[in-house]
Write a structure and sequence with these properties.
This protein has about 260 residues and is of the alpha/beta class. Helix content is about 40%, strand content about 15%. The structure holds NADP nicotinamide-adenine-dinucleotide phosphate (NAP).
């Protein structure tokens, strides 16, 4: 039996990309799942598929917009008994809109990035850590980014949110150092998901150009590392992981082959 068998994993942003791939891979390990996002129909489709392949795990699919603190608290308060004790929280929901320079950034877009990428992660963590402390077990895994290590033009606000994830991860690890709760961060480079389509407001051609001439990471590459991080023995904490496709060296240094 693997170390993750029977553990309960709470995933934000499970309707697509890295979150969805993580749900699939945690299910393979025999974990019970709380899958959340704004698009409930996607979650229900994922639940159905996973439940067919894994009839013995418990899956709770619930709509959650992490920008809304009252929704976070309600979802946590109303967790079914089977999954009310969360072992792993994967703070994955996140997004970027646009590549505008700071002087052109719209207020609504700033608010959405700050409240999704920072506030959501903070308040969900806040809602779950007290019970983890009571139970003497728990693992918070935050999805940061290379954008949280190195700023770039056209990414001021997104980079700021991911620098915040980096700071929050480190501060929380210090605050919880005298507990068995682990705090980890995984920071991907270019991963081919819906992320760029969201960034370019649905313009698929612009989104595809981001990955032109390179072999980007795929969601399953990151999910594998998330599951690996969660599956280490209880005394081992992977604090921080920076992961690139092979032809990426930092936020903007990418070697592209001409096609
Ligand atoms: N792809 C990359 O190149 C890359 C690189 C570094 C870091 N990351 C980070 O990886 C994480 C996952 O991104 P991804 O690449 O998997 O992108 P994705 O395919 O666009 O998935 C993003 C997920 O976040 C959810 N989400 C967005 N806003 C939300 C909100 N307000 N409340 C709840 N859920 C919300 C989306 O679900 P709904 O729309 O259904 O709510 C979706 O499930 C993000 O934190 C991102 O910043 C991505």
């Amino acid at each position: 039996m693997g170390r993750l068998q029977g553990k309960t994993v709470f995933i934000t942003g499970a309707s697509a990309g890295i979150g969805e791939a993580s749900a699939r891979q945690f299910a393979e390990e025999g974990c019970n799942l709380i899958i959340t996002a704004r698009r409930l129909e996607k979650l229900e489709g994922l639940k159905k598929k996973l439940q067919e392949g894994h009839p013995n795990i418990y899956i709770h699919a619930v709509q959650l917009d992490v920008q809304k603190v009252d929704q976070i608290n309600k979802v946590v308060a109303e967790l079914p008994d089977a999954v009310k004790d969360v072992d792993v929280l994967l703070n994955n929901a996140g997004m970027v809109i646009g590549v505008d320079h700071l002087v052109d950034v719209e207020e609504a877009v700033v608010d959405q990035m700050l409240s999704t990428n920072i506030k959501g992660l903070v308040f969900l963590t806040k809602a779950l850590v007290p019970r983890m402390k009571e139970r003497g077990t728990g693992h918070i895994i935050n999805i940061g980014s290379v954008a949280g290590k190195q700023a770039y033009a056209g990414g001021s606000i997104y980079c700021a949110t991911k620098f915040a994830v980096d700071a929050i991860t480190k501060a929380l690890a210090i605050e919880l150092v005298d507990t068995p709760i682990r705090v980890s961060q995984i920071c991907p480079g270019l991963v081919n998901t819906e992320f760029s389509t969201v960034r370019f407001r649905g313009d698929k051609e612009k989104a595809d150009n981001v990955y032109k001439g390179i072999q980007p990471l795929v969601a399953d590459d990151i999910a594998e590392l998330i599951v690996f991080t969660a599956g280490r023995p209880a005394h081992v904490n992977i604090a921080d992981m920076l992961v690139f496709p092979v032809n990426q060296a930092d936020s903007k240094t990418v070697y592209r082959r001409s096609e």
